[in-house]
Predict the structure.
Amino acid sequence: MPHNNRSRTPLPRIFMISSGEEQTEGRGELIDHLDLLPSHIPCIVQIREKHLHTKDLLTLALKAREVRLPTGSLLLCNERADVALAAGLDGVHLPENALLPDKLLAFAPLLIFGCSIHSPEALCIAEQSGADYLLFGPVFDTPSKRKYGAPQGLKKLGELCRASSLPIYALGGVTPQNAAHCMDEGVYGIAGLSIFRDTSRMAETLEQFYSILNP
């Protein structure tokens, strides 16, 4: 069950993941992307920069927190609840092999916690530990996920969506052309990384997803 008041407000249906290639010098790609978010499209934005040392990750998170985001948007950090708290972020996204939400709630009771899942077993564990949302993938083929194996497919996506009352986001090769198929399987929203990296088309892509997810 959702564990905090903030999680009872509707979550954004679009989930953007940072590139994983942020540099410590200069303004940074993430900040450029945040500045380009259309004002009427709330998004979850996950800062997923595993290569950065704590100091640099905190600096990036603080810069991101300063950006005026669309109303209803949420800014999350990958795995690092300490950084999320220090930077005043909204929550933490936890990989499937990371600590579970119930292990972190004692010192971060107001943060939103989401979990990556790849199986019905992982779904049950995340749900029982107090996750606010789930991220499932890769649904379709995508270059960044090929090293992890074949895509999981729409059928498995649908099975997991029907097995949980939590919002589930579909990740991996999701485009405006196939997002409706994910919706047909019961997903709450879509997530992506590479599809949002082209800043010249990012606003258009977000508009397309927004119209599909909010018919």
